[in-house]
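Closing statement on the fe (iii) ion sub-project.
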Amino acid sequence: MAEIIGAITTSHIPAIGKAIATKQQNDPYWKPFFDGYEAAHAWLDEVKPDVAVVFYNDHGLNFFLDKMPTFAVGAADEYRNEDEGWGLPVLNSFKGDAKFSWSIIEHLIDHEFDITTCQQMAVDHGVTVPLTLLWPGAQPQPKILPISINTVQHPLPTAERCFKLGQAVGQAIEAYDSDARVLVLGTGGLSHQLDGERAGFINKKFDLECMDNIVNDPQALTRYSVPELVELAGSQGVEILNWVAMRGVLSGPVVEVHKHYHVPISNTAGALMVMEPEAQAKRRAA
Ligand code: DHB
Ligand code: FE
């Protein structure tokens, strides 16, 4: 059976991709942010995932406001990137694993998640920035299974529903007949608002509570309504829904391996968390 080896949440700000492309990691503005990722690189070098399930939100590259699936799951062997208009270089395609995707999709449909399946899917900065941040060098990147959650056009799915989606994905991974080592990513956040009267809004108190709850009490996050999340985290901070879905995948006790919070980076509270199942943490410590 496939093994869930841990989870990472990270902001996916396009400016990070630009800083990587223009090699600004040691620039005084960027250095404290990028330094926070070294511990994540060391952990990834040790646990070596084969596949990464990526909960993210598409920002208008693959889905536009005219057709907006609540949950969309990739079912391809390759996911291309395209010019989104942020001045980011267009990256080479990312490898997928259609067989793995279809197994997850069949489980989700069987368990009453009426998802959209995507045999072609362009992935935007919600996927590409976390992958380039986490695998910056020549190390082989895992294959990906992108799952897009609508955090853009209301009505959005509830946090409770996103958590349940994650739980169903977790059960599907554990039922998958393979020895694949599976990492789960939740991208976006933390608090930010890019437009309107509250543009620039950041809520450090709420962010730090979220980072604690995502490890120790994820149910506390599922009790917020979407309007409450918008109020507390900003209209784009509602990307925390991707984090909640990611956390649903981890069923047993979870240990925090690393966390990093840096404010502000671009318009956003930049946040990184690495967590793993308790049993694995004990094995690594032994
Ligand atoms: C920014 C953050 C995002 O999550 C995003 O999708 C685009 C921009 C920002 O902080 O600039
Ligand atoms: Fe975003």
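The chain has a mean pLDDT of 97. With this model delivered, the sub-project is considered complete and its resources will be redirected to Aim 3.
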